[in-house]
Amino acid sequence: MPEGGGTLKVAALADLHVREDSATSYRDLFAEISKAADVLVIAGDLTDLGKPQEAEVLAADLQACSIPVVAVLGNHDHESGAVEQICEILRKAGVHLLEGQPKEIAGVGFVGVKGFIGGFGRHMLGSFGEPAIKTMVAESVEEAMRLENAMRQVSAKRSVVVLHYSPILETVAGEPLEILPFLGSSRLAETIDRFHVSAVVHGHAHRGTYEGKTPAGAPVYNVAMQVEKPTGRPYALLEI
């Protein structure tokens, strides 16, 4: 691990979708990442159906990881209504969950929330009409506010924002046009651009694009495992 002023190598991936009956093990991948990076970031959808049993499988695989792990939850992690149990299992496995609480590692502040849907730019969904629409928009605004409150707690000069949903349209390009509003929200980018941010990572868009920028120029990376990356591996490797 570098000192506070040195370059921190961050391995980032998302959308593991761990299943309790899967023959796939991430032990070898986590061991590989431990040799290549100083920190592992997982940007949501750690489990497939949000079951505690799936979190237990992931926790067992994470024993092969010898570097700090930070993460946010994704929509799949909420599927079974067992978020508290999943968080408890992952915390016991040593994972630093960033849901509104930043974590500083070697001079870099990691801050994140899950994020939510809402659309991008001038096509962003507004709070108008039926109560259900207003509730949806309120959830999107609340996630952006939680991110802002967390970012205000970061004292480090360098910071990495970890989301599950995308803050920009660029990195979801490649997905069907019909579902783009359900892949993220520009409200997240508006919040990010109020601060100096070294990098933003997210997942969720399996068929999206690896790299983009917020309107103010913060680099954004779609690190879903299914997205092709410069490393040629399931994870991105960023120098912060």
Describe this structure in words.
The protein has a single domain (9-239), classed as Purple Acid Phosphatase, chain A, domain 2. The longest helix has 21 residues, at 131-151. A hairpin with a 5-residue loop joins strand 9 and strand 10 (219-222). It has helices at 27-36, 52-61, 83-92, 131-151, 186-192; strands at 9-13, 39-43, 69-72, 95-97, 103-105, 108-112, 158-162, 199-202, 211-213, 219-222, 236-239. It is globular and about 50 Å long. By secondary structure, the chain is of the alpha/beta class. Helix 4 (131-151) packs parallel to helix 5. A six-stranded mixed β-sheet has the order 5-6-7-8-10-9, covered by helices on one side. It has a five-stranded mixed β-sheet with strand order 4-3-2-1-11. The mean pLDDT is 95.
Descriptive tags:
6-stranded mixed β-sheet, Purple Acid Phosphatase, chain A, domain 2, 11 strands, 240 residues, single chain, 5-stranded mixed β-sheet, 5 helices
Task: Give me the number of helical elements.
Answer: 5
Q: Any idea of the CATH topology?
A: Purple Acid Phosphatase, chain A, domain 2
- What would the principal axes of the Cα set say about the shape? globular
**How far apart, in Å, are the first and last alpha carbons?**
13 Å
